[in-house]
Design goal:
This protein is an alpha+beta fold. Helix content is 35%, strand content 17%. It is built from 22 helices and 29 strands. The chain binds zinc ion (4 copies).
């Protein structure tokens, strides 16, 4: 429309007579005339009448509407161009701010090199939200990444949150968060643009500078050189930092070249900051027990030692929910000469740039962490720290493990995240075992849980040098929580962690850590299976993702059981499932797929193999007395927990077969096993959908089972063909697990657990008393512990 008006004006104005411009009027004139005609025609509706055949009301307004639409499109294009220009200008300012902050950080690191090399980055593909107003800045070249119109493929570090162009990764090397630090100081990073808030979940465009309280940020809000602490998320203007550190920061101040920083110590700012910092250093002691106060006093003294020779404003004290679960690098010590990485590892490097742009660049893989040389010092742990050690099976059932691992890496120290089956859990446990308040989180299926439980046994035995020592001399076994990723997840169900990972996938790392923090420790019975196999017959099986241990597969049976043991029908199906999983690992991607396959195998089993009557083939002795098995049973189950093969509560729903014994309700810590039976696969199938009930046989604390012929047997879902022979089942002891509690009770449970833990640490009570008190609390709260009630 603007153009048309201009042309009309030009046409009506007297034509320019200058010979140089006469050609303009010569070709403008017919164009303008055509436009005038169009306008005139449009105004009176003749165009639409002539061209489209419309008449009347629509004929008169159709053309102006079309013109208005065209105008709107043109206007939006102009506005978009202006916005992009503004965006480009602000990202340019942000880019120079990031460059200055990066230069200043390099100067700082050159002036005070770290005693220990940092971990290597864990690069993953960066998904840029192209519609977002935020611009991310590359850690390498400080240029913007993924502006709305211009996009390079880029990566983000799952551990420290740094972002970089894929082409800049080579130059970055190992500069991730440090594994060890001598002092509890802030560890500065140049933020990729968005600043991380303390919970690392919701990034924010601007945070207050912890020195001047003015907004910090790179783009597009306040493009000033900014640093952010990788541990407590405090943000600071580099200029403010230089002012406070005065003469100690000439190189850093020099790097802030364009701002003309004159590094003068701002004493008043320094003093006011120091006093405000001191005033926040109060801890509510009124409610604390005397024992707890003493422990805190001791730890505070140790902390003061760690903070010596350090500017008071540099002290880093992460706070916020679940911050106690995080191990900080100033609690970790390295053996001399240790560089954190495995020297024998095949650290992959990027191919040379010269190989050509058409080849996709591979991200450098992180060097595997060498845990042996690192040690966590209990004396340097901050007050209230209850570190969590997370074992993530990235190959477990639903394969959601990788997502959980990345989430946890972002918040926890690299020592606290163990990737199974790649890493050895015993080695991973060693640096942390025995720390006060240590808790373990297993993200995986039932097989992974029993693997980690055995690893805890092995690590505890190794810590005492393999010698039998008193209960109170060995490091205490940490309680174990479970995020279920497997198919059955029976133990996780019983302990209130849910039937699958679905409910946990939308939790942040903090949510997971908080769930662990608020769970109640209970002591669950474990049982030992020992027996002789007859000569010439060997077993087969073992869960796919767990390497076979020494002693497995030879002639003696020696296993530990936590959940249940099945002989006969159910074990036959489980064995078929296990063999299929070995043969076709790709089929087992989803939990639902696994269940369908399991059902199908069950149906196949039911139609093809007539089950054998176990009452003739198996002899059972319970607590020294022979037990008569009902005729016609095809499956025998020995239960420790009240969930069998994916959530069936066999004991509570089962009927009694005329027993003399009065049966107790099933408990996880009562030292008793429950023996139940089914009449074949059809009966088992009806049990699973709640149409029938199993037969209760007895409740006992020791058992001897004789198989007169080889038959399938499963222990905690791990199936194998068990040769003929006799084996005994006896209690091995108890293992601490974590039970989820109703949110309303969580704080009470946490306070009681804290008091019990402190009492044990200060040797007010023995390990045994501690276990007994925890179990007493769990029994008292039994009905209220279930988070779903
Ligand atoms: Zn990193
Ligand atoms: Zn770059
Ligand atoms: Zn900090
Ligand atoms: Zn500031």
């Amino acid at each position: 429309m603007v153009l048309l008006a201009l042309l009309t004006t030009l046409n009506s104005a007297s034509p320019c007579n200058h010979p140089k411009f006469s050609f303009i009027s010569s070709w403008l004139a017919p164009l303008a005339e055509a436009c005038c005609r169009l306008l005139r025609l449009g105004g009176c509706g003749q165009v639409t009448e002539q061209v489209l055949g419309c008449q009347g009301f629509w004929g008169s307004i159709a053309f102006p509407i079309a013109l208005a639409c065209l105008g709107a499109v043109l206007l939006s294009m102009v506005l978009k161009a202006c916005w992009e220009l503004r965006h480009a200008m602000s990202s340019e300012r942000g880019s120079s701010a990031a460059q200055q902050a990066g230069d200043a950080l390099s100067a700082l690191k050159a002036a005070a090199p770290s005693e220990y090399p940092p971990a290597s980055h864990a690069w993953t593909q960066l998904e840029v939200d192209k519609g977002a107003a935020q611009v991310l800045y590359c850690t390498g070249c400080h240029k913007p990444i993924g502006s709305p119109t211009f996009y390079h493929s880029a990566s983000a570090c799952a551990a420290c949150g740094a972002v970089a162009h894929d082409s800049c990764l080579r130059g970055l090397g190992d500069s991730c968060r440090p594994l060890c630090l001598a002092k509890a100081t802030h560890w500065w990073q140049v933020p990729g643009a968005v600043l991380q808030t303390a919970d690392k979940g919701t990034p924010s465009a601007s945070l207050p500078c912890h020195l001047c309280q003015q907004g910090c940020g790179l783009a597009p809000v306040t493009p000033e050189p900014t640093w952010q602490c990788g541990f407590c998320a405090a943000a600071v203007h580099v200029q403010c930092w230089c002012n406070v550190h005065g003469a100690a920061a000439p190189g850093v101040a020099g790097a802030l070249r364009s701002r003309g920083a004159d590094a003068q110590a701002d004493e008043s700012l320094s003093d006011s900051c120091a006093s405000s910092l001191a005033s926040t250093d109060t801890e509510d002691e009124e409610w604390a027990s005397p024992m707890r106060r003493r422990t805190r006093e001791l730890r505070r003294r140790q902390r003061r030692i760690a903070e010596r020779d350090m500017h008071p404003l540099d002290a880093c004290r992460p706070s916020g929910p679940a911050s106690g679960a995080v191990l900080l690098p100033w609690s970790v010590e390295a053996a001399p000469g240790h560089d954190g990485a495995d020297p024998g590892s095949d650290a992959e490097s990027l191919p040379d740039r010269g190989r050509g742009w058409w080849r996709p660049r591979r991200r450098p893989k992180p060097r595997p962490l060498r845990r042996e040389g690192l040690r966590v010092s209990a004396a340097r742990l901050p007050a209230g720290c209850r570190p969590v050690l997370a074992f993530v099976n990235t190959k477990s059932g639903a394969q959601a493990g990788t997502a959980f691992r990345q989430r946890l890496l972002r918040s926890l120290h690299p020592l606290q995240v163990v990737q199974l089956p790649r890493e050895d859990p015993v080695v991973a446990l060693r640096p942390l075992l025995g720390l006060p308040g240590l808790r373990v989180l297993v993200i995986g299926g039932d097989g992974t849980v029993s693997w980690v439980l055995s690893a805890i046994d092995d690590a505890t035995a190794a810590a005492t040098g393999g010698e039998a020592v008193g209960d109170d001399e060995a490091p205490p076994a940490p309680p174990v929580g479970i995020i279920p990723l497997g198919t059955g997840n029976d133990l996780a169900r019983v302990l209130g962690w849910g039937a699958g990972a679905a409910g946990w996938l939308d939790h942040s790392a903090l949510g997971l850590l908080e769930a662990v923090e608020h769970a109640a420790p209970v002591h669950v019975d474990r049982w030992r299976l020992r027996g002789e196999r007859r000569e010439g017959e060997g077993g087969s099986g073992g869960k796919g993702n767990r390497p076979a241990k020494d002693g497995e597969g030879d002639d003696t049976l020696d296993k530990t059981m936590t959940n249940y043991l099945g002989i006969g029908t159910d074990a036959g199906v489980a064995l078929g499932f296990h063999r299929m999983r070995e043969g076709y690992p790709n089929l087992f991607g989803s939990q639902l797929g696994n269940k369908l396959l399991y059902t199908w195998l069950g149906a196949q089993h039911m139609l093809s193999i007539p089950g054998s009557d176990l009452s003739d083939l198996v002899q059972v002795e319970a607590d020294g007395k022979p037990l008569e098995l009902p005729a016609g049973i095809q499956g025998l189950m020995l239960l420790n927990i009240n969930s069998f093969m994916g959530g069936v509560d066999l004991w509570a729903t089962s009927s009694e077969a005329g027993l003399e014994q009065t049966l107790q309700p099933q408990r996880l810590w009562d030292g008793k096993l429950e023996l139940a039976a089914v009449f074949g696969i059809w009966h088992l199938g009806k049990l699973q959908i709640g149409l029938d009930s199993a037969i209760r046989l007895c409740q006992c604390s020791e058992l001897s089972i004789t198989l007169t012929k080889s038959m399938p047997m499963q222990v905690d879902g791990e199936a194998s063909q068990q040769p003929a022979g006799t084996f005994t089942v006896s209690r091995q002891g108890q293992v601490p697990m974590l039970q989820r509690v109703h949110p309303a009770l969580a704080s009470v449970v946490k306070a009681v657990t804290d008091v019990l833990d402190d009492a044990r640490e200060d040797e007010g009570i023995s390990r045994k008393q501690h276990a007994a008190l925890s179990s007493a609390m769990a029994t008292a709260l039994q009905d209220k512990l279930d988070p779903n009630n």
